[in-house]
From TrEMBL:
UniProt similarity note: Belongs to the pantothenate synthetase family.
EC number: 6.3.2.1
InterPro entries: Cyt_trans-like, Pantoate_ligase, Pantoate_ligase_C, Rossmann-like_a/b/a_fold
UniProt binding sites for ATP: 30-37, 147-150, 176, 184-187
Pathways per UniProt: Cofactor biosynthesis; (R)-pantothenate biosynthesis; (R)-pantothenate from (R)-pantoate and beta-alanine: step 1/1
Protein name, entry field: Pantothenate synthetase
Intracellular or extracellular location(s): Cytoplasm
Active site location: 37 (proton donor)
GO MF, one example: pantoate-beta-alanine ligase activity
Keyword terms of this UniProt record: ATP-binding, Cytoplasm, Ligase, Nucleotide-binding, Pantothenate biosynthesis
Length: 282
């Protein structure tokens, strides 16, 4: 497995691959790899001849009061996992490599970025879109794979790639869960043993809400409020619990058919996000 740390090395790799005609897929991550990330790697391997994983805890997507310093960094375990999965290359740039002195350009996808997580984490999605744009420009991969767990992030990246004519094909991959339903996430590591036991409640509320929609309930604002209140009673601090339209993530109306229920809530030190799609029959 090749380890690249400098942006220029990726340019060279792209040049060499173009000569051989091999296809390339990239899986961007912030490291502390778990089985969710590894499922993205497997998907990437099914798409392309070669796979590169990026590991970069991107400062520009963290707010001043957020967990940039505390975010788990486990480089040795990450490299071992990637070797086990026969990943071809890993890109682990430093902050100076991605944001050299003088860097000032930012990529913003305004409407989608202001909703949900963006409303609670101002500037977050500009940080995400900017660093993903930099990765895609550098690596010029044929494919890039992102998790559907970060549903809003995936929607923003798809929008950006379309709007900026970036030639990489974006693929989503399903959310991998623990046996009790909790979506795997690096931030699950912030949970105490007691909180970890209670954490699947977020997914249970998503499923309960989906069931009620499928049973014909159409008062979406009431369903949102009821889930919000339930989580609060159970000791969570919900940021939002929203029944939305899949295509623009705006509040769903009873006539909409392709829905996604998006949720973010804090439990102890952890801020967890999750979602479920609901496709209603016409
Ligand atoms: N449980 C999961 N199933 C599938 N994909 C996932 C899962 N968790 C994360 N991903 C995807 O992995 C990629 C990298 O995410 P990231 O490194 O932020 O991991 P994370 O576990 O989501 O961490 P965080 O605590 O920051 O949410 C993203 O595309 C994300 O959607
Ligand atoms: C896409 C990403 C790697 C950009 O830093 C990050 O937001 C993540 O891990 O989901
Ligand atoms: N997976 C989302 C990255 C973040 O929370 O910053």
């Amino acid at each position: 497995m090749q380890i690249y740390t400098q942006p220029e090395e990726l340019r060279q790799l792209r040049h060499e691959l173009t000569l051989t005609g091999k296809t390339l897929a990239v899986v961007p991550t912030m490291g502390n790899l778990h089985d969710g990330h590894l499922s993205l790697i497997e998907k990437a391997q099914s798409l392309a001849d070669l796979v590169i994983c990026t590991i970069f805890v991107n400062p520009s997507q963290f707010g001043p009061e957020e967990d940039l310093d505390a975010y788990p960094r486990t480089p040795d375990a990450d490299l071992a996992a990637l070797r086990r999965y026969h990943v071809d290359g890993v890109f682990t740039p430093g902050v100076e490599g991605m944001y050299p002195p003088g860097d000032e350009t930012r990529v913003t996808v305004p409407a989608l970025s202001e909703l949900h997580c963006g409303a609670v984490r101002p500037g977050h999605f500009t940080g995400v879109a900017t660093v993903v744009c930099k990765f895609l420009n550098l690596i010029q991969a044929d494919y890039a794979v992102f998790g559907e767990k970060d549903f809003q992030q995936l929607a923003i990246i798809r929008r950006m790639v379309t709007d900026l004519f970036i030639p990489t094909e974006i693929h989503g991959a399903p959310t991998l869960r623990a046996e009790d339903g909790l979506a795997l996430s690096s931030r699950n590591g912030y949970l105490t043993a007691d909180e970890r036991q209670r954490a699947p409640e977020l997914y249970r509320q998503l499923m309960l809400t989906r069931d009620r929609i499928q049973q014909g309930e159409r008062d979406y604002r009431q369903l949102e409020q009821s889930a919000h209140e339930h989580l609060t009673r159970e000791g969570w601090r919900p940021d939002y619990f929203s029944i939305c339209r899949q295509h623009d993530l705006q509040a769903a109306e009873p006539t909409d058919q392709k829905l996604v229920i998006l949720a973010a809530a804090r439990l102890g030190r952890a801020r967890l996000i999750d979602n479920l799609t609901v496709d209603l029959k016409p």
